[in-house]
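During the reporting period the student researcher (J.K.) took over the structure-prediction task from the postdoctoral fellow and processed the backlog of single-chain submissions. One of the processed entries is reproduced below for the supervisory committee.
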Amino acid sequence: MTNEMILKAIQLLLVGFILVILATIFLHAKKEKIQLRENFFTGFWIGYVTDLLDTLGIGTFATTTSLFKVTGLVKDDRQIPATMTAAHVIPVLVEALLFITIVEIDVMTLVAMAFSSFSGALVGARLTKNWNTKQVQRILGTLLVLAAIVMVYRMLANPGEGNSETVRGLHGIWLLVGMVFDFIIGALMTMGLGNYAPELIFFSLMGINPSVALPVMMLDAAMILVASSREFIRSDRVHWPGVLGIMAGGVLGVLTAALFLTSLDVNHLKILVVFIVLFTGFMMLRSSFLPSISSKKQEQKGRMDAHSFKK
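J.K. obtained the following structure tokens:
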């Protein structure tokens, strides 16, 4: 089978995933009597902005989480990873369809790393299924801060400089290292860590021009979201109001970026996103510890009341 045939097969697979995910969402909504049109326009502009930025390489996790906080669309932090996954899976599949043939890359690298991401996401979706609010808040907050640090590193160190223009993939032991890396990224992405920045850094460290990472990033993200979305949907962890709007706006955002904005200098936007990520991350970490502090105060108050009663 030639590389061109493999790429065509991958594109057909992506189209099939789009149809399966849409069917899963609408059948689940019908079964559970969920009103998907609720908060449609709030979700629409969130999806448009976040997936437009995602197509430009900024990612959706930090921006979507921040906009959820600003709009109050998702109030329970436990539902953020599942809601983002279900909402963004269709736009990211469209991204992969559009960009998978733009950059020349070794097909073995593309397929192997996508398979590893998919496998990691299957494990991660089950691993985090029963985590409580404080655990999720702490994980998301920590990952947000780490994501901001990675973004700052990319801007300051310019890791793409000096990479080979001719190397198009990984081979031998380095392909195995890449597969292990993407398995971990796939598992972590189900907890809210985006895969774009880590993969750009990884490819740069491997001596490959970051532009080559584009189709890998897109396909990996698509596989991760497909693997985890069905598990999230079936486990009722998705906050559905606004999800249909995010999907519709997200697809439009992807198309807008692909057609008109691919040459836009996004450095200033990235600086803004860093501040948003840090603010949201620290706020989540703060929220995760507040219940414990409140509980201690109530416990202390209870002891004081008991002591007064004895007197």
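The committee noted the following: Residues 3-305 form one domain.
J.K. will present the remaining backlog at the next meeting.
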